[in-house]
Write a structure and sequence with these properties.
about 600 residues; alpha/beta; Dna Topoisomerase Vi A Subunit, Chain: A, domain 2; Rossmann fold; 4 domains; nine-stranded mixed sheet; five-stranded antiparallel sheet; 19 helices; about 35% helix
């Protein structure tokens, strides 16, 4: 029993009513959470809750699980509270919120358990169920329980969170306490386009007319959360809101919420317009109503977003003067040999030191320090995806190569960590995995450079000798370019010294970098290679001169020394000449160069030394 005064109780009842959360039950001031039936709840629903505290400063915290409202009010004004009362008030509000959240989670778990049991005991819906007949739709996986259609409401893990039941008369109910926000029902298979709708009948109609993947959010208030979820799961899909047109309701909530959802995910909105303004004595509102009233051709015409209906390839066609007039942003360069948004490949034989090369590029990029001879851009975020290295070895190498702490994000996705965390392999051949990577990039916009080390491990299962097998990957890489991402692919050289597999893989590349061991290489040298550019779009000059690079250790850190390959070859040739190698043929064989180049070097050495 409460010991609060009538005025105190009346004050709190009035506050609940004024916030649209009136409670018709007597308020109980025991400091525990209480649920109650709110106006607008379905029969038996209890989406309202409150916690009422007594004491020197009576306090109530109340809210709605349906609208996610939480409101707090104490009997005294804030300026009248003593320090102790103010602290107690904050603690009571925090306790009430925690109690409400725990209660909600418990109710959601109970609802999910009930939903799973009902679903397992239900039977597939027949095509002639009265509701389906009246709506002119197919079951699309719906089932029947107690003569009502039941639809699973899937959470983000694709488990059943709750159920919606639909009576023969169209009455709809959800299991009490079930989680609906962000959860949905789906019809069809995912593709490049997704329609998002409110109700099941609308979704069934849209899918049957378009053949397109269709997602049911169940009400307009859930459109935004479901749209955001879809964009996260299908980052490249076109999302179209097939809105209800609630023209008879104040503010047209169906269309208003659909527009909000479209704006949140850069989607489109279509909505029905009607010639016949009544259906079953009520104003028509959705695409199912349009189909039933006005037929297939009318709904087909209205389901295409206006901007799609108006635009064709002709709209993207440019004549030369128009192309000249375009205000195009200057294409910046990460390094002189690699444009921003460029796609590059670094390849070489096994053991040449490709990973050291890639990690050094990552270290230079995130710290803004030079990469060999080349100036670095302002610190730029890097996502390094590794397909084969032990995580401890990767960490050791990266730490030793970083010249100073990163000034931009440096993130790693490794096959080692993916397997330990998810118990699955990191294989980018899978389109869903590539979508997950796009989602990671969307969530971390500061990441502008992507390094994929290496093709053989990360894209396993592809026939390396068939260009067509690489086409879907090439398309993905070009999409990354369109998003402004710079990508470095790492690959192995074949026996010929060229990149292994089809040369068609190079078609979409801006830059191809070949790493080779020097002709006089000794295993005792460690990481020592020559860097040459075999393809480099829109770049030329001494910046692309081949280099000779060697990795050494200095006080526990790894440091590179380098010189141009021409200087390196001259030094090697001079050493061989001093050792008695004077034949162009022998010199060419020793240095791995052409006989003509060997002759040129010998002439220069003789001229410099005065030898005959």
């Amino acid at each position: 029993m409460t010991t609060m005064t009538f005025d105190q109780i009346a004050t709190f009842e009035r506050a609940m009513s004024e916030n649209g959360l009136a409670c018709s039950d007597p308020l109980i001031s025991d400091g525990h959470i209480h649920r109650y039936h709110m106006s607008g709840d379905k029969a038996g629903g209890k989406n309202g809750w409150y916690v009422l505290y007594e004491g020197t400063n009576p306090t109530i915290v109340f809210g709605s699980w349906k609208t996610d409202q939480t409101i707090k009010q104490s009997f005294k004004n804030d300026q009248d509270l003593s320090p102790y009362e103010r602290q107690q008030y904050r603690e009571q509000v925090d306790q009430a919120r925690e109690a409400a959240e725990q209660e909600r989670k418990m109710l959601q778990l109970e609802a999910a358990t009930r939903a799973q049991a009902i679903w397992e005991e239900s039977t597939p819906a027949p095509d002639d169920h009265p509701y389906l007949r009246r709506k002119h739709i197919q079951p699309h996986g719906a089932r029947v329980s107690d003569e009502k259609l039941v639809l699973p409401v899937y959470d983000e893990a694709w488990g059943i969170a709750t159920l919606q039941s639909i009576g023969e008369d169209g009455s709809k109910l959800f299991l009490s306490g079930g989680a609906k926000t962000g959860n949905c029902f789906t019809i069809g298979e995912p593709g490049s386009t997704v329609y998002l709708v409110e109700g099941f009948a609308t979704g069934a109609t849209v899918h049957e007319v378009t053949g397109t993947y269709t997602v049911v959010a169940f009400d307009c208030g859930n459109l935004v959360p479901v749209a955001v979820r879809l964009r996260r799961e299908y980052p490249d899909a076109q999302i179209i809101m097939a809105a209800d047109n609630d023209s008879e309701k104040e503010g047209n909530p169906g269309l208003t919420k659909a527009k909000e959802a479209a704006e949140a995910v850069k989607g489109s909105v279509v909505f029905p317009t009607f010639q016949d303004l009544t259906t079953n004595g009520k104003p028509p509102t959705d695409f199912n109503d349009l189909f039933v009233l006005e037929g297939l051709e009318v709904i087909q015409a209205q389901l295409i977003p206006p901007e799609q209906a108006q635009l064709t390839l002709r709209d993207a066609l440019l004549d030369y003067p128009s192309m000249l007039a375009l205000q195009l942003p200057e294409r910046k360069r990460i390094y002189p040999f690699l444009p921003e948004g460029g796609i590059a490949m670094a390849y070489g034989p096994r053991g040449v030191g490709k990973t050291f090369f890639n990690l050094t590029m990552a270290a230079s990029t995130v710290t803004g320090t030079p990469f060999f001879r080349w100036k670095a851009p302002p610190p730029t975020g890097v996502l390094y995806i590794d397909g084969e290295m032990d995580l401890d070895e990767l960490r050791t190498r990266m730490t030793a190569l970083l010249p100073k702490p990163p000034k931009a994000p440096l993130m790693f996705l490794t096959s080692h960590q993916v397997y330990n965390t998810l118990q699955r392999d990191l294989v980018l051949t899978n389109a869903d995995v590539r979508k997950e990577i796009i989602s990671i990039l969307d969530d971390n916009p500061a990441l502008r450079v992507l390094i994929l080390d290496n093709i053989s491990c990360l894209f396993s299962g592809i026939d390396e000798d068939r260009k067509t097998a690489w086409e879907s990957i090439s398309t993905w890489l070009i999409r990354l370019r369109h998003r402004g991402m710079t990508v470095l692919l790492v690959h192995h050289a074949g026996k010929s010294g060229q990149q292994r597999g089809t040369s068609g893989r190079e078609d979409s590349l801006d830059t191809v970098i070949q790493l080779n061991k020097p002709a006089d290489y000794s295993q005792q040298e460690g990481c020592h290679f020559e860097i040459a550019f075999t393809k480099c779009r829109s770049a030329k000059g001494e910046e692309l001169e081949a280099l000779d690079a060697k990795l050494g250790e200095n006080e526990g850190r790894l440091e590179w020394t380098w010189q141009t390959l021409a200087v390196s070859k001259e030094e090697q040739a001079k050493k061989l000449f001093d050792e008695g190698v004077t034949s162009p043929t022998d010199m060419a064989e020793e240095l791995g160069i052409t006989k003509g180049y060997a002759s040129k070097l010998l002439r220069k050495i003789k001229a410099t030394s005065g030898a005959n």
